[in-house]
Amino acid sequence: MKTILLIEDNDFIRENTAEILEMTGYNVITAENGKVGIEKALETRPDLVVCDIMMPVLDGYGVLHIFNQNPQLSGVPFIFLTAKTERNDLRKGMELGADDYLTKPFDSSELLSAIAGRLNRFQHLKPEYDLHANGLDEFLHDAQKTGSLTSLSADRKPHTIPRKQIVYSEGDEATRLYFVQSGRVKTSKTTAAGKELITGLYQVGDFFGYKALLEGTAHHDSAVAVEDSVLLYIPADDFTQLVMRNPEVSQQFVRLLAGRVREQEDLLLDMAYNSLRKRVADTLLRLHEQQRTLNPDDPQIQLSRDDMAALIGTAPESLSRTLSEFRQDGIIELNNKFIRVQQPEKLRRTNW
Questions:
Q1: What's the pTM?
Q2: Do 34 and 63 contact (CB within 8 A), yes or no?
Q3: Cα–Cα nearest to 59, from 7, 111, 14, 102
Q4: Residues contacting residue 136 through CB under 8 Å, at least 6 positions apart
Q5: What is the spatial order of strands in the sheet that 222-225 belongs to?
Q6: For the chain, what percent of residues have pLDDT higher than 90?
C-alpha cells in the first residue's frame, strides 16, 4: 500500500481529499501546515506528497526545498495544490523540482489521475541497484523506460582492457562514462616532479570518468587498468540525457556517485592530517572491505607496492617499512603477491 502525505491548511479540503485517497486504497498521512508535514515525513517516508502552496508556518515552496535538501526525503514525488495560476508561481515550483500541479478546485478524477501517473513513473526506479550483479543493465533499462530514452542501450558491448593499458590520459576529451564489469582500474595524476598520486581505485560495479562529463571538460587525470579488466562504455550523449533531462534518474545516479566523492574527501583529509602509519592502516581497511564484498571467504588485497604507495601518497620504501611493522605485530599477513588483514580491529585503533 502506497503512503501519501497530504499537507493542506484548509480543514475541509484536507479531510475530503484524505477520504477520497483512503477509499482508493492509499495510506494517507495528513498535516495542517508545512512544518508538521516535514516532521511526519521524517517519521514515515511517504511514497508521494500532495502539498498546498499557500500555508502558514511553512509554505509549500519551503516544504519542497527541505525535501530536496534532506537525504532522507530527497526524490519523493511532489504534487503542488494551488489556487494561484499565475505563470511565475508555476515556474517557481517547477524550478524547485515539483513534479506536477493541481489547481483548486479540482475533482477527484484529476487528483487520482495525477497521483497514479507520478507513482507509475517513479516505481520503475529502485533506490538501490546491485551493480556487482546485473545492476547496470537494470539501472539503464529502468532509466530508458522512465525517460523514454532510446539510445541508452547502444554501444554497451564489453571491452577487454589488458593490464597496464591506458583507458584515457589527462587532457583527453571526455567522450564516455565507464563501468567496471571485471578487473580494476586506477585513476591518477602526475606531479611536476614526476610523482604519481592515485586519485581513485575502481573495481567491479564502479563507474568512473564521470567528473569530466559532469563538468564538461577534458579529463583531469589518467586511467590505467591495474589488472586485466572488462569495461562497459556509455556514450557521453546518453549520459547527459540520463542525468540532465530526467530528474528521477539523476537523483538515483547521484546516490551511486556520492559515496565515491565522500571517500575521496576522507582520503584528502587523511593525507593532510594523519600520520603515515594511520594512513596505511586506513587504506588497508578500505581495501580489505572492498575485497570482502567481492570475496567474503578470502579477502586478499592484491595491489603492487608502487600503486599502494601512490594511493596513500608516500614513497614505496616508507610503505614497505610500515607494512613490515604491521606484519611483525601480527596485524597482517604479507607476501609478494597479496596482503591479508588478520586483525582489522587493531588497524582501526591505529592513530599514530
A1: 0.52
A2: yes
A3: 7
A4: 129, 179, 181, 232
A5: 166-168, 222-225, 185-190, 196-202
A6: 25
